[in-house]
Amino acid sequence: MALQIIPDWLGNLEEEDLVFIKRFLLASGSLKEIAKQYGVSYPTVRLRLDKLIQKIRLSEKNESEPYIALIKQLALNDKLDFDTAKLLISEYKKTQGVC
After folding, report:
1. Which CATH class, in words, describes the domain spanning 13-60?
2. Alpha-carbon distance 5 to 32, whole Å?
Protein backbone atom coordinates (compact mmCIF):
# COMPACT_ATOMS: atom_id res chain seq x y z
CA MET A 1 0.00 0.00 0.00
CA ALA A 2 1.49 3.32 -1.07
CA LEU A 3 1.28 6.25 1.26
CA GLN A 4 -1.26 8.63 -0.24
CA ILE A 5 -0.82 11.48 2.21
CA ILE A 6 2.45 12.51 3.81
CA PRO A 7 1.86 13.65 7.40
CA ASP A 8 2.74 17.29 8.12
CA TRP A 9 5.32 16.31 10.74
CA LEU A 10 7.16 14.21 8.16
CA GLY A 11 6.92 16.85 5.46
CA ASN A 12 8.42 19.45 7.80
CA LEU A 13 11.63 17.49 8.37
CA GLU A 14 14.82 18.23 6.50
CA GLU A 15 16.43 15.62 4.25
CA GLU A 16 19.21 14.91 6.77
CA ASP A 17 16.55 14.20 9.41
CA LEU A 18 14.89 11.67 7.11
CA VAL A 19 18.24 9.98 6.44
CA PHE A 20 18.84 9.79 10.21
CA ILE A 21 15.40 8.22 10.75
CA LYS A 22 16.04 5.66 8.01
CA ARG A 23 19.43 4.73 9.49
CA PHE A 24 17.88 4.55 12.96
CA LEU A 25 15.18 2.16 11.77
CA LEU A 26 17.62 0.00 9.81
CA ALA A 27 19.81 -0.21 12.93
CA SER A 28 16.76 -1.45 14.88
CA GLY A 29 16.84 1.66 17.04
CA SER A 30 20.38 1.07 18.29
CA LEU A 31 21.91 4.42 19.16
CA LYS A 32 25.28 2.69 19.58
CA GLU A 33 25.10 1.44 15.99
CA ILE A 34 24.10 4.88 14.72
CA ALA A 35 27.01 6.44 16.62
CA LYS A 36 29.37 4.00 14.87
CA GLN A 37 27.86 4.78 11.46
CA TYR A 38 28.24 8.54 11.95
CA GLY A 39 31.59 8.25 13.72
CA VAL A 40 30.39 10.22 16.74
CA SER A 41 29.77 9.54 20.42
CA TYR A 42 26.60 8.04 21.87
CA PRO A 43 25.67 11.33 23.64
CA THR A 44 25.95 13.18 20.32
CA VAL A 45 23.51 10.75 18.69
CA ARG A 46 21.20 10.97 21.72
CA LEU A 47 21.18 14.78 21.43
CA ARG A 48 20.37 14.56 17.72
CA LEU A 49 17.52 12.15 18.42
CA ASP A 50 16.17 14.45 21.16
CA LYS A 51 16.21 17.42 18.75
CA LEU A 52 14.43 15.35 16.14
CA ILE A 53 11.78 14.37 18.69
CA GLN A 54 11.31 18.06 19.53
CA LYS A 55 10.87 18.89 15.83
CA ILE A 56 8.22 16.22 15.44
CA ARG A 57 6.36 17.29 18.58
CA LEU A 58 6.44 20.91 17.43
CA SER A 59 5.05 19.92 14.04
CA GLU A 60 2.26 17.90 15.62
CA LYS A 61 1.04 20.81 17.67
CA ASN A 62 -1.64 22.88 16.04
CA GLU A 63 0.05 26.23 16.37
CA SER A 64 -2.47 29.04 16.19
CA GLU A 65 0.37 31.48 15.53
CA PRO A 66 2.39 30.69 12.39
CA TYR A 67 4.99 33.32 13.37
CA ILE A 68 5.69 31.61 16.70
CA ALA A 69 5.87 28.21 14.98
CA LEU A 70 8.39 29.63 12.50
CA ILE A 71 10.59 31.06 15.27
CA LYS A 72 10.51 27.75 17.16
CA GLN A 73 11.37 25.82 13.99
CA LEU A 74 14.31 28.14 13.26
CA ALA A 75 15.63 27.59 16.79
CA LEU A 76 15.27 23.82 16.53
CA ASN A 77 17.13 23.85 13.21
CA ASP A 78 19.98 25.87 14.77
CA LYS A 79 19.25 28.81 12.49
CA LEU A 80 18.47 30.97 15.51
CA ASP A 81 19.69 30.69 19.09
CA PHE A 82 17.13 29.90 21.80
CA ASP A 83 17.60 33.15 23.72
CA THR A 84 16.87 35.20 20.59
CA ALA A 85 13.89 32.98 19.81
CA LYS A 86 12.45 33.50 23.29
CA LEU A 87 12.96 37.26 22.99
CA LEU A 88 11.25 37.40 19.59
CA ILE A 89 8.30 35.32 20.81
CA SER A 90 7.97 37.41 23.96
CA GLU A 91 8.00 40.68 22.03
CA TYR A 92 5.54 39.31 19.48
CA LYS A 93 3.15 38.26 22.25
CA LYS A 94 3.37 41.77 23.74
CA THR A 95 2.33 43.29 20.41
CA GLN A 96 -0.57 40.83 20.25
CA GLY A 97 -1.65 41.60 23.82
CA VAL A 98 -0.85 38.06 24.98
CA CYS A 99 1.58 37.40 27.84
Report:
1. mainly alpha
2. 33
Pair 89, 74: CB distance under 8 Å: no
Backbone angles phi and psi of 24, in degrees to 5: -60, -45
CB 2 within 8 A of CB 27: no
3-state secondary structure 17-70: HHHHHHHHHHCCCCHHHHHHHHCCCHHHHHHHHHHHHHHHHHHHCCCCCHHHHH
CA separation for the pair 52, 57 (Å, rounded): 9
pTM above 0.70, yes or no: no
3-state SS assignment for residue 90: helix
Task: Check residue 56 and give its pLDDT.
Answer: 84
d(CA 25, CA 61): 24
Low-confidence ranges of the chain (pLDDT < 70): 1-6, 8, 60-64, 98-99
Question: Any idea where the domains of the chain sit in the sequence?
Answer: 13-60, 62-99
